[in-house]
Amino acid sequence: MDPKPQTTDPKDFKAGLVAIVGAPNAGKSTLLNQLLGQKISITSPKPQTTRNRILGVLDQPKAQLIFLDTPGIHRAGKALNVRIVDVALGTLADADVVLVMMDAAVPNTEAETYLIEKLKGHPRPAVLALNKIDLIAKPKLLGLIEQWSQAHAFEAIVPISAEKNIQLDRLIAAMVALLPQSPPLYPPGSLTDLSERFIAGEMIREKVFRLTGEEVPYAAAVTIDDYKEAKGGRLVKIYATIHVERDSQKAILIGKGGAKLKEIGEAARKEIERMVGSQVFLQLFVRVQKNWSRDTKALQRFGY
Ligand SMILES: Nc1nc2c(ncn2[C@@H]2O[C@H](COP(=O)(O)OP(=O)(O)O)[C@@H](O)[C@H]2O)c(=O)[nH]1
Ligand SMILES: [Mg+2]
Fold it and tell me: Which of 108, 184, 225, 275 has CB 3.0 to 4.6 Å from 23, enough for a Cys bridge?
């Protein structure tokens, strides 16, 4: 029996982990979704939307990039924020390449300087992506390139727009150049290690982020209580609970006559339907769990 023809020469293949780090709102999750062509990481204009480590696998002809989308690095406060910072810094230690993302339109100099400082403790090759160039003029961009090339020994600085898909091929090439020689680490086409069940919970949380104001998004956690296929796979039935910290937040979330919760449920259902490719029945409950974000046991139960 003939051996199978070798489709990829292992000496000619690269693979490794890329940690995407940056201040909240830089566009890290938007970039990951754009690169993968599918939404696996939720996004919103509010900082601290991403809470967990999100893993995405990008297959290229001669490389495999495994991205870790991390929560934004910021100064730690209460229990949930401490966990978020730990997760972000933990991924730096595992990374073959660090992709630093900055919002070029609205620099967050304090967070960015703090991040560069942290980077010095993890001597890994780093690429800087200056994002949202669709929003700024060239002289401002050139000033930022000058500023950051002096602040850190980046292997490359690439101006991009994650949302408008500008120069992402250049960014990929810059990262591939820095990856170690290795066979693929995940089977090609893996996309992510997250379950649809987890992503569905995140999509509900995103709608809470986008459709409610003030402190409510930060006080909300989502658990999926039941997730099952019905009608021979033509329907997915999901029962989920949104946990908040106070009765007043519960009232905002439910809205007048239940209007707000209905809006959140409908928006989330449509997005989950796109992901799973079938009809979805989604039932949402709201529960008050006092001060869960300061309670280590509750954090564990909510997956943080
Ligand atoms: N105009 C513009 N907006 C962007 C771009 N990339 C991301 N955004 C927006 O910036 C906000 C934050 O993005 P997100 O991916 O959640 O940031 P993260 O906190 O770093 O994960 C969202 O409202 C995005 O739509 C871009 O290239 N151009
Ligand atoms: Mg994010």
Answer: 108
CATH no., domain 10-176: 3.40.50.300
CATH architecture of the domain with residue range 196-301? 2-Layer Sandwich (3.30)
Is 53:202 a contact under the CB 8 Å cutoff? no
Please provide the DSSP assignment of 115-153 as one string: HHHHHHTS---EEEEEE-GGGS-HHHHHHHHHHHHHHS-
Q: Of 283 and 291, which is predicted with more confidence?
A: 283
The atom number, within ligand 1, closest to the CA of 161 reads: 27
Could you report the per-residue pLDDT of 42-98, keeping only the tens digit for each? 898 888 788 877 889 999 999 999 999 887 766 666 677 777 777 777 778 889 999
Structural domain boundaries in the chain: 10-176, 196-301
Establish how many alpha carbons lie within 13 A of residue 213's alpha carbon, considering only the half-sphere containing its beta carbon.
1
Instruction: Give per-residue pLDDT as tens, 93-151.
Output: 889 999 999 999 999 888 888 888 888 888 899 999 999 999 999 999 999 999 999 99
Q: Please work out whether the CB of residue 72 comes within 6 Å of at least one atom of ligand 1.
A: yes
Ligand 1 contact, 162 CB (< 6 A): yes
Tokens found for residue 102: 């900055």
Name, in order, each residue with C-beta under 8 angstroms of 109's C-beta and a sequence gap of 6 or more.
none
Nearest alpha carbon to residue 60 among 99, 15, 125: 15
The tens digit of pLDDT for each residue in 273-287 reads 999 989 999 999 999
**The tokens of 29 are what?**
């999750």
**Do residues 56 and 161 make contact, with C-beta atoms less than 8 angstroms apart?**
no
Q: If you average pLDDT over every residue of the chain, what do you get?
A: 90
| Ligand 1 in reach of 73 Cβ (< 6 A) | no
Task: Give the residue whose CA is nearest to atom 10 of ligand 1.
Answer: 27
Q: Which residue owns the Cα nearest ligand 1 atom 16? A: 43
- Residues 261 and 244: beta-carbon distance below 8 Å: no
